[in-house]
Fold this protein.
Amino acid sequence: HAADAMHTDLMTITRFVLNEQSKYPESRGDFSILLSHIVLGCKFVCAAVNKAGLAKLIGLAGETNVQGEEQKKLDVLSNEVFVKALVSSGRTCILVSEEDEEAIIVEPSKRGKYCVVFDPLDGSSNIDCGVSIGTIFGIYMIKDAGAARLEDVLQPGKNMVAAGYCMYGSSCTLVLSTGSGVNGFTLDPSLGEFILTHPDIKIPKKGKIYSVNEGNAKNWDGPTAKFVEKCKFPNDGSPAKSLRYIGSMVADVHRTLLYGGVFLYPADKKSPNGKLRVLYEVFPMSFLMEQAGGQSFTGKERLVLSTGSGVNGFTLDPSLGEFILTHPDIKALDLVPKKIHERSPIFLGSYDDVEEIKALYAAEEKA
Ligand code: P6P
């Protein structure tokens, strides 16, 4: 009967979030309303992406349709849908989208207390070959909705109240955390509802997979090169890790979350800050990894000491001539962005695997 109960006791994402919100009696349901508009955007993009394969036939996404009108690129279309859905929710005051150079300040009459940072269609270069792509989003509460200021979005990732992604692949899966664990929901097209299919996701403590674009190997710094070398030629008798790299962040991170292992987009000589964007790629994925028991590290923090029980960051205070502990157990989420499209290197995934990378950076720093 358990299966029946599951089948008839449909835990939709809306119901799930309302249950979560009931823990905060003072909440007026604003977050649930905001989330329902994000879900609407995901449903639209899911339908459009699934049709994209037929673009040539029915004239969608970047093709000219039968009337010879140039159709919008799917990522532009997705961005417009998300912006309109978020503004019309009446719960946002600042939006940062990968597609828009400037932050969008919502008109005062429609303002709410949330700021949403998002990439409406990450990995969209993969659409034409049918590889999974996705929407990534992070949500901050801002101090004063009345005075929506840019610095309200330049907050460290640890201040996010929620983060998630929606992957458009063989199924449409929305993975979400509102700060108490990670849950996965799969769209049931016959109901048009996201149903809870992956309750309380926890990433394995250690994995057998590493995920990186090996084509950049010639430009890597020492610690990254050493870590990847160790994955391929372990010196402790353990089996070599498998390489899995899809080249679509949402797909690579989703596999890492469910199977374990580590995803890395390191800095390299050509791009000292790596490629991925802090606000709407690094922070949301790092938030989810920490909530699932994993961790996330940018490699940019100055590490001096690895005591074996976690790596701490110290900064030299020249006036004292002493290293002062500035980043106890440093994390990517501690980063404070200065620009809304700032990039950062990222190493995220299974706790033990990322710990190994941090120790290699610490050793490099000490040397
Ligand atoms: P590379 C896709 O273009 C993207 O932004 C992420 O989704 C993905 O992880 C990364 O870039 C892939 O970059 O340089 O390996 O092709």
Remarks:
- DSSP finds nine helices and 16 strands in the chain.
- The pocket of 6-O-phosphono-alpha-D-fructofuranose is lined by residues 122-123, 125, 213, 247-249, 252, 275 (CB under 6 Å).
- Residues 86 and 237 are 52 Å apart (CA to CA).
- Confidence is low (pLDDT under 50) at residues 57-61, 303-308.
